[in-house]
Amino acid sequence: MPSTAPEPAHPMVAQDLQRLGGHLRAQRQFLRLAAQSVARAANVSRQTLHRIEHGEPSVTMGAYLNVARALGLELALAGAARPGTAIGEAQAVRVANYPQLGQLAWHRQGETLTEEEALALYERHWRHVDTSTLEPAERRFIAHLAQRHGKGALLV
To answer: pTM value?
Structure first.
């Protein structure tokens, strides 16, 4: 029987775990891997994988990390990410601040990305960007990303 979940020390913990579990589930589905195969590769039971994908706090961090590795992902910690706050070398970008980016990253609303991640999303999904409705601030932001991280070019 699973252990009971500890009371979160911070109100955002439950949301963070659910978001992490959702990302792991999305990656598994993107890779078209069966849950049983991922569970076996991560050395966890199918039930534990299900609990991880639903962000249950009673699952050990080691199990979360095993699943991430089995999916080819690496988890990293970031400091308090706010617009203009450094995450490593990159600036944090709030998805909600840019309408077209928000549409491209609909599954990451309320989150922050690095500038490199934002540029990669724009480039990978440019066909879905409605350039006729791009706000001037978002146009400047895209130009900034291309200049700073794309060697002066937006690869679309």
So the answer is: 0.49
Q: In whole angstroms, how far apart are CA 81 and each of 15, 43, 87, 96, 139?
A: 16, 32, 7, 14, 23
Q: Give the CATH number of domain 13-70; options: 1.10.260.40, 3.40.50.10700, 3.30.990.10, 1.10.10.10.
A: 1.10.260.40
Q: What is the pLDDT of residues 86-126, one digit of tens each?
A: 444 457 888 888 899 988 888 877 778 888 888 888 888 89
Contact 119, 145 (CB under 8 A): yes
